[in-house]
Each structure stands twice: as C-alpha cells, then as structure tokens.
Amino acid sequence: MQRIAFILKIKPEMKEEYKKRHQNVWPEMKQALRETGWHNYSIFMRADGTLFGYLETPDFDAARAGMALREVNARWQASMGPFFEQLGELHPDEGMVPLEEVFHLD
Description:
Blueprint: E1 2-9, H1 15-23, H2 27-35, E2 39-45, E3 50-57, H3 60-68, H4 71-80
Antiparallel strand pairs: 1-3, 2-3
C-alpha cells in the first residue's frame, strides 16, 4: 500500500467556501474515489489556505488514471478549480505532486 501526501494552496478568500463544499462531497464522487483505490483519504487546511492531503492506495498512478475516466471527477474538478492558487491550466487532481516520505514509524 502506498502512502501519498501532497500540498496544494487555496486562495485565501475561498477558504470558507472550500470547507463548505467538502462538508457535502457528492455521494457519487466519494463512491468513485473508493472504487478507484483511494483509501483513508483526508485533507487538512492551515489558516493560510495551505492544504495537506493524505491517502493510501495500492497504486497512485492507477488511482488517478481511474478517476480521470470518471465523468463525476471531471465535474468535480471543474467546480473546484477556481479555488486553487498556482495550478495554471491544471485541474486540482493533476496538481497533486506526492511528497517524498522520509520517515514512517511502522
């Protein structure tokens, strides 16, 4: 199982709306994530809008590729794109660059 961590940045004026949207993630989006191998997926936010995301998956490349084929993911990414800083033309899920793991207790 791969442990994946990433950092993204939300525009400061969009923080509260971002949190609201994640209180009600579409059921079909959550199901698609589960079906494509996203497990133990969490997102944390600092006061400045920096996001830290974490998930576990058998294969991160396959999990991302599986979501890229889902219509619900295209809708979700389009709706969430305006919240992020420094992504350019990328969708938020394309901006998830895994951090290097340097320590794990187990």
